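Thanks for the sequence, V.! I ran Spore coat protein U domain-containing protein right away. Repeating your input here for the record:
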Amino acid sequence: MKSVFMISLSAAALWAGTAAAQCANVEPVIAPQVRLDPLDAAGPGELMQPLVLSFHRAGVDTSAVTIRYQIVDEDSFVVSRVGLSQGPQLVWQSSDSTRDIGAFRSEAYPLLRTGQVTLGEDDQSVQARLFMRLTDLRSDLSSGVYREQYTVRYWCGDADQASLPYEAQGAIAVSVAVPNVLSANIAGASTRGEIDFMDFAVRERELQVSVRSTGPYRVTARSQNGGVMLRDNLRGAGDQADRINYDVTFDNAALSLDGAGGQPMPRAGLLGRQFSLGVTVGDVAANRAGDYADTIFLTLSPVN
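Predicted structure:
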């Protein structure tokens, strides 16, 4: 007797307020949410988002004034945060130079890391163009939304006569969304696999399923023949001697073949994990000779 077992796989922000300054106030900015997919090998390695900071004159002085500014990473205790110390890594650059204008709250004032704009004589406002650059789009990030409120620290006047720094805390709200996505394959790169029990000398066989995911997922299985292998593609007629019962496990846990329920699985990560899909057939001593087969559809679905 020869039996063939077919396997198919489908994979399936707000701001805290501005601080009044001698020369200007800063208008709060909510950056458009950035969506990252670490599993997208064809996507870019970095992403740059342009933003505009608006400085509005404060007080009655109408003379021209130079404003130098930088973005302060508060390095907050938010678990899912954007910044240099954890989560999606962010670098700030000004349009008037290529240098980094980011700083940590814990640092002394790094005056060399600033952008610069000039509020002209009698002008009531001026805009500074800057860039928010995400530098680690291939990092092993868990699914979720990462947030941070950035402070704008700025000085009024030229470098040799600059004021004490003023701050607009939480003036820039940033959020980065990492969706729960997954990829899976059987035996290296295929979405279709085969288990052949040959002459049933061995009644337990398995194949390997490779999974990568940014979050948890659920595994379900559905049998084309209702959980039995049928002789010579038999449909309808026949008796138990034309059927072979079998059980399926995924990662050593029993898997139902009705497509319902399913087995919850934790995040597999960017590097991925391999799991055994095992099949054990029942006693075949009383079965008629012939070729027995069934098809299982294995579905892996992200759990949000």
